[in-house]
Amino acid sequence: MDTLLTAEIVASSPQFRRKSSIFVDAIHDLPEKADLAPAQLYSTESGRLFHSGRIVIITVGLPARGKTLGVKTRIFHLGDYRRATIPFGEDMPDDYFYVNATASSVLLRQKIVRKCREDIYHFLNHENGQIAIYDAVNPLASGRRSLAKEFAKHDIETLFIESRCDDERIIEENVRRVKISSPDYVSWNPEDAIKHYLNRISSRIPQFQSMEEKDLNYIKMINAGERLIVNNRSFGYLSNRIVFYLLNLHIKSRRTYFARAGVSVDADSYKSDVSLSEKGEDYAKKMTECLLAHREAEKQAMVAQGDTGYEPRSLKVWTSTRRRTVETARYLHEKGYKVRQRSQMSQLNPGVCEKMSERRIRAEYPDEVSKHELDPYHHRYPRAEASTSYHDLAVRLEPIILELEREQNDLLIIAHESVLRVLYGYLMACNAADIPFLEFPRDEIIEIIPESYQNEAQRIHIPNLPEEIIPASPEDLKIPVPASGVVSPMQGLGTPADGLATPQSGTRTPREPERISQQHVEDVV
Amino acid sequence: MASSLPPIQSDDSKICVVMVGLPARGKSLIAGKAMRYLAWVGIPARVFNVGSYRRNNTPQPQATFFDPHNEEGERMRRAAAEGALSDMLAWFQAGKGTVAILDATNSTKERRKWIHEQCTAANIETLFVESICDDEDLIMTNILEVKTTSPDYKGQDPELAALDFRKRIRNYEKVYETIDDGEKKYTYVKLINVGSTVIINQIKDYLSSRLVYYIQNLHIKPRSIWLSRHGESEYNLTGRIGGDSNISERGEAYASALPELMRKSGIPENTKIVIWTSTLRRTIQTARHLKAETSFEKLEWKALDELDSGVCDGLTYEQIAEKYPEDFAARDEDKYNYRYRGGESYRDVVIRLEPIIMELERSENVVIVTHQAVLRCIYSYFMNVPQEKSPWMEVPLHTLIKLTPRAYGTEEQRFKADIPAVSTWRGKGTSAKHQDFPADGNEQQK
Question: What Gene Ontology cellular-component terms does the record carry (chain A) (predicted)?
Fold first, then answer.
């Protein structure tokens, strides 16, 4: 046995649960009637990646997050089941969380776990689910083994993910961040909050055995991703993707900005890759000035607040390989900012519908229009050669998303609106069905600020732009879905709070996102 | 057009991948594959093999040379390491590379510390890759490979070579120190028994994480990969590129012949094979009979779709030469980097194929039915074809290519179906009409 492993295991550090910002796989969360699979990279009839099988990810000491794994994912918080079983106001047995609980508490616990497991089976067997995330602390090796056995009986692969931290500095910093944004500590004194939080973590988990079961599939994350230990018994495709994803995770307070490309000479052709028009040049200049002024003002504000530790991060620029986006970055390039072209960030290809008016599209392709309206996220216009759906685009953008997670600098992304929709949808955990309707007027730069519970977005207004270039790009194929009532603000975590910057078009009611609950109590089973 | 745009920039970080491990642990295999992968994605990489430096002075040393108490041997091995490292630093200095792979045992902490210091001083990141293996069968396979292929034992009795090699390994074992907590400041990855346990420490940049992910996906189970273009399409007949046409009558004949051709190429018994196609009609139609007759599972990948020729989609090469003469010439000039107006370049195709390559490394037996440009890119990865050549490679229609990866290099076999088809191959500087493929199966003139 490696000394390295054993050293980690005996380290009796407090467990900490990293609070994440985004909880569902929103990009690929599908409407029920989707006729195309939610599969990443390829499609199958069942809607699952068949060479991967169904997986339960079981958390060991960390909260669940299921970002862009590309398949239908749902999180099952054991805490929610406990709360549903033991109604609010009613007392929980004192020994509920203890290992040596009384028989009645053990029975209660088993009942709650069973209900949760049944829901997982239902999701995986009858709702085309591919990944279920079972969120509980799962502190004991024996418990984990029996869980794996139980799921194996149902032909479901298990992957345990454990998070450990023995670096006081990281714990402190994380608690500080959590303290600021956790609703639990709204009116608390910061020092008390930290103390209370740390106390709660260690007292809730009386006995904890770090994962060392060589017969199980597991990933152990140590000190927020500094070290990863992967025990691969039988990893499938998705388990490997998860490892890569975890490799690229890190918590940083860097900013991501989104800006549209300027308008071009012949704006309504997708195929001809043309240069910026005069107005486009003007936009590029104003956008650059506006962004740099905003960053400067932010820096001044930090200094004025006496934040001596503030270090401005450098800014990088990514564009697509299309001329308009590259030329929009020209002023930044001239000022010495590093500009990278990313071929994956090319816009959606509208296929046959290029250059056609909406009326003509409706007349010539009525079937396609109704298909598009049913599922604008997955629908591809005909001329299959190059025509892309939002889903195809999201798949193509996956490497970009991973790199985005890894980037240490601030980043400006200049791209076509369709690309911005998908990237924004990822960072802000929008519902897949809403992604095609996100709007990015040209007179706004979107700034995304990472927070522990949810990323925040704000809009920076670019002044003095001519009216006609502001609205959605004319080359963009748009078939508005008929209005169906009032716009309801999206609720729940992982989406921006009301009034914040979700650029939602007013023509459609967004689907209620899956309810996600955030837990502040550690559930031990 | 494309040439007027700023060049694609790479990130500044330079990485030295330092292999760590006893002999016969697959270090050279990992190093070689990683280099091929990096070259394929366009990252300049080179392997610096300390053994080949040592061979300059001691071409065929005995095991005693590697005894830690042999001062002379120790001194010469140290000199070889210094030679490799200083050449590597000079290579970075000259701006030639992004990733260097230092292939040696690097089995002591002292040696690793020295490498780390040298690299840090030159502003190069280090990534230690340790391969640990206690599976006797795996080690034996590697020893067999070494005694038959290593220049150290060239021309020697294989049995004696194996014996000597085992002695050499024992000498290394005397001083071997695995990477442990004392080295936790380093960026490292430990692979235990070909990735069954992997420990990844302090990965800081994206390129390293990609490399680690790649290495983690490697396996050494025997398998083959079959490549085929779609059967002749209606567009092929009229010489048009792109599109989403159906296969022609002759294309259909190829589709019917494909199952038999697969059998002829040799399918190991009780083997699970998966069929991959693009999302375009012509590949799906071509794989139809194979799927029906064999009941292999089938996947359709968007990433396997043909290179997008943008405005030129649906035109013949002659029409392109007439309508876009400058573009046509520019494409001949640098076919790999030329991006069709509103379409893709070969470089773009390689980028979108990267997940496919990762998946192929992870998979076992796979049949891929795809398109000319995509097939050239995949083939180039396995056969290490340089970028200047890959876009010009001839990949005839109605031919099945079987690739079988071996420890050092990939074995290729071609099986031609006796079904005529047009040739879609175009020589540099010509707008030659597609020609009928010579029915006798001779290579046509280039």
Answer: cytosol
